[in-house]
# Entry
Amino acid sequence: MNPRQLAYFRKKLLIWKDEILKESEATLEALKAEPLREPDLTDRAASETDWGIELRTRDRQRKLISKIDAALRRIETGDYGWCEMTGEPISLQRLEARPIATMTIDAQERHERDEKVSRDE
# Structure
């Protein structure tokens, strides 16, 4: 991967991370501003369900940030864009769709099949 492509993916990852952090800040502000005080039990349950979903989403995004940080480290070390299983280059189309990818599509499919087989046993 050439330096221009690496710079493109670095910028893409940083923008993605920034968007996630802004969404998280908005969620925290909303939690502070809107305490759950609905007098109706049904309304309160609906609000608690909504906040539960929101917090689970934020937890998934927290994990995603660590994957983004790992991808940024791989850019710095020169490992970005190379499959961790086969050592082959990951296609630009795959990286465009999933910039945190660590495996080629074939290696990922193999990994998922092996994982499924081990779960089924």
